[in-house]
Amino acid sequence: MIRFLVWVIVFLLFWAMRKDEESKQRESATRYETRINELEERLCPCQSHDWRRTDFDFTGGTGCGDETTLYHYQCAKCGKKTVTYKILD
User: Fold this and answer.
1) What pTM was computed for the model?
2) Which domain holds residue 57?
3) Does residue 63 share a domain with residue 27?
4) Which of 41, 42, 38, 47 is nearest to 88 (CA)?
């Protein structure tokens, strides 16, 4: 019985430590995302990106002209890349 209780306590300690590490990683990722967005805003204020089309792909469909076109864009100011179905100005 005592051995079982020790195993349960050890398991709970490891579980708590893992949850703490995961929350730290999530907090760190959120902090980095916020910093990236802040730096992007400095380079391209108010989302005024200067999009340049770099490539396009055809996806899906049956080969009879019903494919979907994916456009690849890159901002000339900040270098941000995006893939979209829309034609951006």
Assistant:
1) 0.55
2) 48-89
3) no
4) 47
